[in-house]
Every structure is written in C-alpha cells, then in structure tokens.
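It is worth pausing here to work through a concrete case rather than discussing structure prediction in the abstract. The textbook approach is simple: state the sequence, then state the predicted structure, then interpret. We follow exactly that order.
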Amino acid sequence: MKTVLDVGCGDARGRVPAYYDDWRRVRLDIDPRFEPEILLDARQLQTLPAESYDAVYCSHNLEHYHRHDGLKVVAGVRHVLKPNGFFELRVPDLAAVMATGLDVDDVLYHVGDRPILVRDVIYGWHVPIEQTGDDFYAHKTGFSLNALLRFVAPLGFPQYAIGPGMAFELRVWFFPQIPSEEINAMLRTATPE
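Step two, the predicted structure:
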C-alpha cells in the first residue's frame, strides 16, 4: 500500500484529495490537539527516516514559515520522499489576491459561512490567531507561481505539474524525477476540492 505524509494535517476530519483514498495517510502536525500520528514541527522532517513516503501532501502549511525555515521544510520533504514519489503543495496565490484590487479588510471569499478577508490570506486567518494566540497560525511568507517554482525546484524537484486549485490557491506537484504514467494518470483526476 502506498503511503502519503500529510504535513500540517490539522484536524483528523481534514480531507486530502480523493486519489489518496486507497493510500495509508500518516498525519503530521505541530499541534498536539489534532492528535497526529507524528507530532513534529515540519522544519524537523529530516529527523524522520529517509525515503519513507510515496507522496507528501502539504496544504496551506508552507506559508506559515519564514522563507529560511520554509527551505528546511522543503529539504525535509525531499529527505522523506521516495525517489519516484511526489510532493503535492498548496499555498495561497498572492499574485491572484493582489490582482483583485480589493482592500485588505474586504471579504475575498467564504468557506462555508465564514468570510475570508484579503488580510487572512496575506497574514493568516485572524480567527484562530486571535482565539489561540498561537504564532504558528500566522503567515510568514507568500508566493506567486513563479516565486514558488523558484523556491522549491532547486531543492531536488526539477519536474513539476500545475494543478487545478481553489480560488486564490496555487496547487503544484513537484517530482524529483519524471513521474510515471501511473502518477500522471492519477493526477489527471484532480479537481479543485
């Protein structure tokens, strides 16, 4: 059975894309309240066994690190990823947010009945930050597509594919080598989710 490491998994009810349904999901988070299988700061991924996972899924986590720490996260992902595996990365698309022309306190979109403000995408969602006071909910960096590609590729991911993301989201799969046809077929089933 293939295994996906879900970095920054959050609550166990959080979803991963449907194509991981038949995979073993290993949840990793820094927050013990989420009861992850691996309680660890993602900057410490290199302390895990090398080449252990077929895929690493990292959704809206990388922007929570300063750039120099984000480099540690990506290097750690490369460390735990099998050579024929892939890294699925989702982050806010700051270029798309800036192109809206909205003010920082304007509503950008809704998640259910919760409004997400422009500043939430730039600085981190204010609700949990204010409720918990936990700094790891804040955004400390941001990406456009070109900035993300320049950031990740040099760390051992020369191949990539851009996928369908939600509004104001970048979704990119990074590969240490040319992906197999099996992986390409799986990723073709991707939806914005």
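Step three, interpretation. The CA atoms of residues 46 and 193 lie 30 Å apart. The helical segments are 67-80, 94-99, 118-123, 126-132, 145-152, 181-187.
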